[in-house]
Amino acid sequence: MANNVIVFPTDFSALSLKALSIAQRMASVMDAELHCVYAVEEPHIYATLDMGPVAIPTAEELASSAENRLQNFISEHVQGLSKPAVGKVLVGRPAEEIANYAKEQGAEMIVMTTHGHSGVKHLILGSTTEGVLRMADCPVLSVRAD
Fold first, then answer.
1. What sign has the CA pseudo-torsion 93, 99, 102, 108?
2. What distance in Å separates the CA atoms of residue 45 and residue 36, rounded to the nearest whole number?
3. d(Cα 66, Cα 10) in Å, to the nearest integer?
4. CA–CA separation, 32 vs 38, rounded Å?
5. pLDDT number for residue 124
6. In angstroms, rounded to a whole number, what is the distance separating the alpha carbons of residues 144 and 116?
7. d(CA 140, CA 43)
8. What is the pLDDT of residue 137?
9. pTM value?
10. In terms of Cα–Cα distance, which of 93, 81, 78, 84 is closest to 132?
């Protein structure tokens, strides 16, 4: 029998913990592996801003830093599962990377937080959850955090 997988994308915020508790319960009920993922976007360089020399971290540097943070997040917040949680840092556009990762893993479900932004704030910030809902091949449980 193949391993069941629940994918839990996090941004390390306190708000994401609301979805984490649900993801952990789902993993327990389904005897699934919980995969905690964090997506790092490629840094953008805006040459036209004329800001002078600016140190811009590489995607690899960002991913390395995120890897440490993700492992600490898992150690601190994920307990009591029959299978150890898996941590994975993804590099690219978050919604796309999360949906692709879930597909590659044959995930049963993605459980993630939505911040519920609307109007101008939504236009500026966008919605990773909305993108995952559109692109994912598996069910997505969207937990409103606010």
1. positive
2. 29
3. 11
4. 19
5. 44
6. 6
7. 28
8. 95
9. 0.85
10. 93
